Structures are given as C-alpha cells and as structure tokens.
Amino acid sequence: MQETAARTVAAPFTMAPYTENCARLCERAEHLLLRVGPETGPLGRERLSALLRWAGTAFDRVDVIVADVSLVHVHQALGQPPEKARKNANHRAAKAFRRVSRAWEEAGVPPQRQRVHLLSTFLDHPVYARLRAEAQRAVAEDPALREVSLQAARKVLRTYLKDREPDFAQVDEGKNHLIAEMPWCLDTPGILGVPSSVTLHPQRQPLAELMFASPHLTVSPRQGQAVVRPRFAAAPSS
C-alpha cells in the first residue's frame, strides 16, 4: 500500500489505500467512514479528536459508526447469557458514543457536521441487511474468508481473555461481530447515500484486504478502504 495525504501535503495523517481504485476514491475525498469497535483497536480521545479534525477538513463528509449490537456476539462468546451480553454491549457502546461526541466537539468541527451513529441504527436498512446476509453467506462458503474471519475474532477475544486462547465455539460466535461490520467495507455509499466513500482502518485489517479477492463478495466500485496513520509514523518515502 502506498502512502498518500488527503488534499494537503501538510496533513497530520496519511492514508495507505488498499487498491488503485481505493487511492482514486481517497483523492476524491467525498466521504470518510470511521468505525469504532474492538477490531479497530483503541483510539484515545486526543488522537480521535486529531483524526476527526483532519478528516473534517480533508473530506466533504465524515461519519463515525459505533459498534453496539455487534458487540453482543463478543460478550456471548465470552460466556455471557444473551440478556447480560446485550446490557454490557449497550453500556460499552454508550461510553464509546460519548467519547466520539466529545472528540467531535474538541476537534472544532461545526455541530452540523458531527455525524456519529450506533450500528443498530442501520439494522433495518435494506442495503445494510442485504450486505450483512451476503457477508454471512460468504464467510460460510469461502474457506479463506472464513479462516481470516476466525483469526480476527480470535485476536479480539484474546484481548478480553488476557491472552488466554479462546476455544473454537467462542471464536465461531465472535466472528459474527465481524460479519455485522463487513457491510461498511462493501458498500457504504449504498447505505448512507453518498457519492463514494473510504472506510478508514487505524491498523491493517487482513479481513478487509481479502474482501477484494473473495469470489463470494462484491465490493462496490464506489467503496474504498485505507489504513490511516499519523504522519510521523508513516514509513519514509524512497
């Protein structure tokens, strides 16, 4: 992946697009999507504010999606009964939502541009529902995609189990959290009604990369993905 900056060489963050088409969509900078959840890794409020401040000037529109219903699968994988899993997932999501809202305010972005949503908002959206069903079928039918999904779920669960190895049943349940997030890597424009979109990942996501290669998934040509890094952390150009 080649590093690029959005709209200004002085940008505090750089993006590493996954494909050439992703690079073109980064240059268009019409929409950026940032997901906040276990698979994206921790984002401190200070860094999140800086990221949103940059994104608010680099892209025409920015939306943040906070995992909530998808977290239920993580808590159930940890052995919690459904009711407790929902309660804990909602509690964590509410804290994350408040953190993102404060980060938006600290970024100095006008209130009318501060877009943050819970994932559950889109459960009944027809495009999201169709893409989630497609992702579920793909993970079931594509051995490579299923293996990478299980690896990603295992990595997430280890953070809760203090590096103890989750068993297969836990990992199998945990992967459903990732399936619920996959539509945002397939066709965000179709869900949010934007011309094109780039989904940002704070760290490399092998599952996201594999989506482009899977014969069981269709990534919209209007959907891009990129890894975002602080400029000081970017590899020097040759």
Can you walk through the features of this model?
The structure is a single chain. The chain is of the alpha/beta class and 238 residues long. It has one domain (13-231): Cyclodipeptide synthase (Rossmann fold, 3-Layer(aba) Sandwich), CATH 3.40.50. Helices cover 48% and strands 13% of the residues. It has 9 helices and 6 strands; from the N terminus they run βαβαβααβααααβαβ. The chain has helices at residues 20-28, 45-58, 71-77, 82-107, 126-141, 143-160, 168-181, 188-192, 206-211, and strands spanning 13-17, 32-36, 62-66, 115-118, 197-201, 223-230. Strands 1-6-5-2-3-4 form a 6-stranded mixed β-sheet. Helix 9 links the parallel strand 5 and strand 6 (223-230). 43% of the residues are buried. Mean pLDDT is 90; it is low at 234-238.
What is the fold's blueprint, element by element?
Layout: E1 13-17, H1 20-28, E2 32-36, H2 45-58, E3 62-66, H3 71-77, H4 82-107, E4 115-118, H5 126-141, H6 143-160, H7 168-181, H8 188-192, E5 197-201, H9 206-211, E6 223-230
Parallel strand pairs: 2-3, 2-5, 3-4, 5-6
Antiparallel strand pairs: 1-6
Helix pairs in contact: 2-4, 3-4, 3-7, 5-6, 5-7, 6-7
Keywords: Transferase
Family: Belongs to the CDPS family.
Protein name: Cyclodipeptide synthase
